[in-house]
Design brief:
Helices cover 48% and strands 9% of the residues. It is an alpha/beta fold. It has two domains: 7-315, Divalent-metal-dependent TIM barrel enzymes (TIM Barrel); 324-385. The strands form two sheets. An eight-stranded parallel beta sheet has the order 8-6-4-3-2-1-10-9. Helix 10 links the parallel strand 9 (244-246) and strand 10. It starts with 10 loop residues before the first strand and ends with a helix. Bound molecules: 2,5-dideoxy-2,5-imino-D-glucitol and manganese (II) ion (2 copies). One manganese (II) ion binds at residues 137, 181, 217, 245, 287. Residues 217, 219-220, 255, 257, 287 line the site of one manganese (II) ion.
């Protein structure tokens, strides 16, 4: 298998990914980032499905209406010429100094209102370009000095903002799906709603929870020391996996946004196996960027690597699920139990079941004695992933 990306793979990249000039907090740009049109051209050649953008990735902050029209027209032509789409859009509510103390959660109602205006305009732009998923990443929605902002009030303001924008989307007749992206910190000392799990709890408090899901990111859950595969599994269970940000990350580091699979290939493997086995039909979005050490040619290799790694892990998942050693162990692990327990657990509680269970006698020693060959299973997994099984 050549691991060549196809449009049907739904691979997408944000304009800020290949557009990244290699700047970091300790150094100026090292390369000329790819422009939106260049990205559309290059990713079109590589087999990607589309590109995503923050409003200001495409239209610089403060552009006139005429400048926006020109930029959008040029971008639409590039999309059409290269067979590319725009499945997702989002708003930059973190770059401009006006948002230095938050956007939706700012203590200044003028800033909160300005943020809503910026999102509304960006939703219009995104919808016009074809986006049907709208991501919200609250990079500045946090604090370094908790004395300055009541956290309950801050979360209530997040809810007010999301409810307002759900109403706006409905009033415009947009069939947007909103996807909330969590991150525990950076650029703020602490960011509100720091994990995908926190976002799922927050969604339940919204006026239109059916419109809102999550956009988990590998690096962000990993920064928290969490198992990304587990975080996405909870989103799948809740029917709320509306989008996913794929990249790589080492635990205990700043947000590295590395090439997908660059670190923790095993967790990436179980993530890909989950997405494929549960039939995830959303965009596989690489929210990542090449290393500062990369030149433009290596940035292309970065983009190719993200997609190629996903396809390699997709094939490894098929190999894993067909492997006789794996299947034998999983059968042993999952067919334990007995008919009485199965019947009891199927269909939930009844008074009769409760009474029967309370009086049942268990052979706890027998239950305890069951073998769990996880060492053998994990070694087999390692060997499949490293091509020696
Ligand atoms: C950071 O991980 C955020 C921003 O790049 C953007 O708002 C979002 C898009 O997926 N991810
Ligand atoms: Mn990130
Ligand atoms: Mn992201």
């Amino acid at each position: 298998m050549a691991y060549e990306p196809q449009k049907s793979d739904n691979f997408t990249f944000g304009l800020w990914t290949m557009g990244n000039p290699g700047r970091d907090p300790f150094g100026e740009p090292v390369r000329k980032g790819f422009t939106p049109v260049e990205m559309v051209q290059e990713l079109g050649k590589l087999g990607a499905y589309g590109v995503n953008f923050h409003d200001n990735d495409l239209v610089p902050f403060g552009s006139s209406a005429a400048e926006q029209d020109r930029i959008v027209a040029e971008f639409k032509t590039a999309l059409s010429d290269n067979g590319m789409t725009v499945p997702m859009a989002t708003t930059n509510l973190f770059g401009h100094p006006v948002f230095k103390d938050g956007a939706f959660t700012s203590n200044d109602s003028r800033v909160r209102a300005f943020a809503l205006q910026k999102v509304m305009r960006s939703m219009d732009l995104g919808y016009d370009l074809g986006a049907r998923v709208y991501v919200f990443w609250g990079g500045r929605e946090g604090a370094e000095v908790d004395a300055g902002k009541d956290a309950v009030t801050a979360i209530a303001r997040m809810r007010d903002g999301m409810n307002f924008l759900c109403e706006y989307s409905k009033s415009q007749g947009y069939d947007y799906k909103f996807a909330l992206e969590a991150k525990p910190n950076e650029p703020r000392g602490d960011i509100y709603l720091p994990t995908t799990g926190a976002m799922l709890g927050f969604i339940a408090t919204l006026a239109y929870p059916e419109m809102v899901g999550v956009n988990p990111e590998v690096a962000h859950e990993t920064i928290s020391g969490l198992n990304f595969y587990h975080a996405v599994a909870q989103a799948v269970d809740a029917g709320k996996l509306f989008h996913v940000d794929l990249n790589g990350q080492k635990v205990g580091r700043f947000d590295q946004d590395l090439r997908f699979g660059q670190e923790d290939a095993k967790n990436a493997f179980f993530l890909v196996r989950l997405l494929e086995s549960y039939g995830f039909t959303g965009m596989k979005h690489f929210d990542a960027h090449a290393l500062r050490t990369s030149d433009r040619a290596d940035v292309i290799e970065f983009a190719k690597g993200c997609m190629r790694t996903y396809l390699i892990l997709k094939e490894k998942a098929k190999q894993f699920d067909a492997d006789p050693v794996v299947q034998e162990i999983l059968a042993h692990l999952n067919t334990s139990g007995d008919a009485e327990s199965d019947t009891l657990l199927d269909g939930g509680f009844t008074k009769e079941k409760g009474d029967a269970l309370k009086s049942r006698v268990f052979d706890v020693d027998a239950l305890t004695a069951k073998s769990l060959p996880y060492e053998k299973l994990d070694q087999r997994t390692f060997e499949i992933l490293h091509g020696v099984a």
